Amino acid sequence: MKRFLPKKRRYSTILLAGFIIGALFMILSSKVMDYTSTDEFCMSCHVHPHAEEAWKLSTHYDNKSGIVVHCVQCHLPPKGTFRHYREKAITGARDVYGFLFKDPEQINWEAKRQISAAVKHTYEESCIDCHQNHFPLQLSEEGMHAHLYYQENKDELNCLNCHLHVGHYSEVAYEPIDFGFEAVIDEPELLHEKPAEVTEFERFTETIPGTTVQFDMLPVPGGRFLIGSPDDEPGRRENEGPTREVEVSPFFMAEIPVTWDMYMAFYRETVSEGRTDAGTFIASADGDGLIDGISGPTPPWGSPDQGWGWGERPAITITHHAAETFCKWLSLKTGKSYRLPTEAEWEFAARANTATPYFFEGNPKRFTTDRFWNRLFGPDTTNINSYVIYERNSMSMTHPPGTVKPNPFGLKHMLGNVWEFCSDYYAEDAYAQYPANEVIKNPQGPPEGHERVIRGGSFNSDAFRVRSASRTHTRHDAWLLTDPQIPKSIWWYSDVFDVGFRVVMEKPEAISGSDL
Predict the structure, then answer these.
(1) Does 134 lie in the same domain as 204?
(2) Which of 149, 174, 199 corresponds to the end of one domain?
(3) Among 84, 316, 348, 455, which lies 20 to 30 A Cα-Cα from 273?
(4) What number of other Cβ atoms are within 10 A of residue 424's Cβ?
């Protein structure tokens, strides 16, 4: 008995000490958790330009109710859940690594504000934890329809699809869009009176009557080539084969994709708010005329340029239907035959008589970030950067045409910047449908389908995807997912920002020049 009591006291002392240490650890941990969850602590690491200022301008800080939504309420799962602490640990480790080893000046903060990045750092369950009533009394009718649409499509939609800028204010999301319905310019003498006259198969500058807009069209000589890519080309996908010998007739192609300046000239004339009672003005060689045969786009619900700029940047967020309608309008305005290129015409023009992965020298394996070695040490960008706007040099936005060198035909941005619509319906095995032992002349693609071909890659694309043979297709329903209208818009895509288009013009039979 004498030996038992001292041992019992020792155990009690150890248990008491353990309890005190555990209690102190829990208290200290709670204090650390609370401190590292304050806005001040978050801002001490997140020093990028827009974070704190944009938050204080947002409706999560500056609102009628006076409620302030703090950083961790959006950027972590709801407090009290296991996921909250797990994500806090992961986020903390990532932020510490970035703070110690990354240069904030080299980070593309604008790209971090786009929805593709935002959904990785904002938790929908946190949105719902605060906004439990999706149909408050003050909700507008438009908001009610949008929330009903969300309820029916929860598996595909995220709160950020419609509310991307509520936590960090963006002028682009809220500023009114001025499309200039009143007058295009103050000096009417600068307006073009006639379209260009084309008498030779050579470069010419097209002018759109009634506007100040002009653009260059380049001759693309007819010829034969192998459409698609060989089996051993790095980055090749199955839909790029089998290769087939194709022959295309000569045609003209625009030097650059359709710009906002070009598209907005069409928009102003054909949109309901911009049309006159007399109809749409068309200039012709015989004199002025009126035609009312083109129905134009409805107004967009946001800023279709995404805040990147208008002018000579490529027009984006435009549907295939809108692109085809633009071509019809341009044909009526100029008296020529403008249209979208076929897939064969597009690839022939992009290759410009080359048979390599790009129209310039370089191995896709050295350019891509889709290989571990390149991700670790960085890809070779010395050559591709001169010709292509892609994920490594785009800063996640479109660029004006003067930022790259042209291909041997003189065409700019055939690869990268924006994907470009073709007229063909898309099929994975489109080339396999062509006969193998004969030359296919001016193929038009499958006779029917649901989606259209797009070519060339974009500012979001890896180097593998900006090869001359790379091909994919529109995703009409997915690109309109967050459009709550019934029926959905036939003019504007709500969910894709890197697709545009380029026009071609059929070579008039009367003009001289290159033939097959």
Answers:
(1) no
(2) 174
(3) 316
(4) 25
